[in-house]
Design a protein that fits this description.
Length: 289
């Protein structure tokens, strides 16, 4: 494992910025409409949970019970109102015991089925985000992989995505950060390190991006809109030939309005393309992709 710095970046997109970006991408990418419609229904619930946890933070040992009482009911209501039919049915009428298992399991780094993982992430995520650097006290490190990998310095969770910030200089690349799938924290990580296994051999690190007016780094799929421009100029697949895993990478220099956790949700065609290349995402996102 190799990181440039173990420091945690605390500046995160506001809830209003996430909402605006989801609405923008919903209009731009009709194929992601169902996913983003559910996300928009969840944002209000999550912002309320975040605000309540900021005002009166729960004790780490009580976080799962707090989220079950304060945020989970709203998540279920939003899902029943705006989620796809299969997910709506799956969350209706669940026993309280199953919900407690899901929330506690997510905090403990346990492997969960997709519905449990969705409910836990949607309910607990904003509370952990509100706790900031104190979130780690409520979490256990994720179960270790046989081949290692990069872990969040705050809670020990796995990275959800990678993003590049604009450097402000034309000849200087911006730093790369990873965002945690569990607590939402971000931290810097070398662009020459695979977040999935820690591989540092550049020859094993591959990038798949849409071709646009010339060559791209790694392999391009050549897809785009009718004008030959890419659907996702700000997104690419950052993969590894060693562990066969990948993350979606968001380039903030190509689109300064991007909100990494929202843009990643809309990257469904890139996820499908990565799967066709035999790659598996380090961590499925909130919606299970």
């Amino acid at each position: 494992m190799s990181t440039d710095s173990a420091s945690i970046e605390t500046v995160r997109p506001t809830w209003s910025a996430r909402r605006r970006r989801a609405e923008e991408l919903q209009a731009r990418y009709p194929f992601a409409g169902e996913v983003l419609r559910l996300y928009l229904a969840l944002v209000d619930v999550q912002e309320d949970a975040w605000s309540a946890a900021r005002e009166s933070p729960p004790e780490p040992s009580e976080l799962a019970a707090w989220a079950q009482a304060r945020s989970l009911p709203g998540v279920v209501e939003a899902t029943v109102a705006a989620g796809p039919p299969a997910l709506r049915e799956a969350v209706r009428g669940r026993p309280a015991e199953a919900d407690r298992h899901a929330l506690a399991g997510w905090l403990a780094g346990a492997a969960l089925d997709p519905v449990d993982r969705y409910l836990a992430r949607a309910s607990v995520g904003p509370v952990l985000e509100a706790l900031g650097e104190q979130a780690g006290a409520a979490c256990r490190p994720a179960s270790p992989d046989e081949d290692g990998g990069v872990r969040c310095p705050c809670c020990g969770g796995r990275p959800q995505l990678s993003y590049l910030v604009a450097s402000g200089e034309s000849l200087v690349s911006g730093r790369r950060s990873l965002a945690c799938a569990r607590c939402g924290s971000s931290w810097t990580c070398s662009r020459s390190t695979c977040p999935g296994c820690g591989e540092v051999d550049d020859g094993q690190l591959v990038v798949h991006a849409e071709a646009w007016g010339g060559p791209v780094s790694g392999s391009g799929n050549g897809n785009g809109d009718s004008d030959g421009r890419p659907l996702f100029p700000q997104l690419r697949v950052a993969g590894c030939a060693t562990c066969r895993r990948y993350l979606i990478e968001v380039d903030m220099e190509r689109d300064g309005r991007a909100v990494p956790e929202v843009d990643e949700l809309a990257a469904l065609p890139l996820d499908l393309y990565a799967a066709d290349q035999g790659l598996t995402k380090v961590t499925p996102n909130l919606m299970g992709f």
